[in-house]
Amino acid sequence: MAYWLVKSEPSVYSWDQLVKEGSTCWSGIRNYAARLHLKNMKKGDGIFFYHSNEGMEIAGIAKVEREYFKDPTTDDERWVAVDIKAVRQLKKPVTLEQIKKNKQLSGMVLVNNSRLSVQPVSNKEWTSILKIAGEK
DNA sequence: GCCAACGTTGGC
DNA sequence: GCCAACGTTGGC
CB within 8 A of A57, min separation 6: which ones? Predict the structure, then answer.
């Protein structure tokens, strides 16, 4: 199973909103690198939900509910979307600051390419972040 | 196919 | 609100 991280500005779509709705269609991605990751997502993969700009923290965990399909927000066949489902809120949100301070997470895409809105997370990174979040 | 100019993202 | 970093566009 693979792990991912998606970013959203809370003012546009927040973790709370995802929890309320249960699941949502992750669409509107218009970046080739991000699209590649969307296409690689498999059902059941874990997803960190990160708040950019405001909050700047990983708020919760979601999972891939439906693998990629044509993005409904455009007629262009080339863009894709996935459905994601809220799993649970982190005990303690993990802030960007904490991630930057942690040596094991210095290789994270979030740190090195802050603009990529859909990014892969390694098993190690996933575990480290859960630990920081107080999740064992 | 290169690269300058421009637009956007996101941390600060 | 500023600006650095990155991606995309378009002229050549």
Answer: A50, A51, A93, A94, A95, A96
Distance A32 CA to B6 C1' (A): 19
Which domains are seen in chain A, by residue range? 3-132 (3.10.590.10)
Residue with tokens 């779509």: A13
pTM of the predicted model as reported, rounded to 2 decimal places: 0.94
Residue nearest to nucleotide B9 (CA to C1'): A115
Measured over the CA atoms of residue A44, residue A7, residue A29 and residue A36, the dihedral's sign is: negative
**pLDDT bucket at A13, cuts 50 / 70 / 90:** very high
- What is the predicted pLDDT for the residue at A78? 87
What average pLDDT does this structure show over A34-46? 96
Nearest nucleic acid nucleotide to A112, CA to C1' distance: C5
Helix ranges (H only) for chain A are 15-21, 32-40, 96-101, 109-112, 123-132
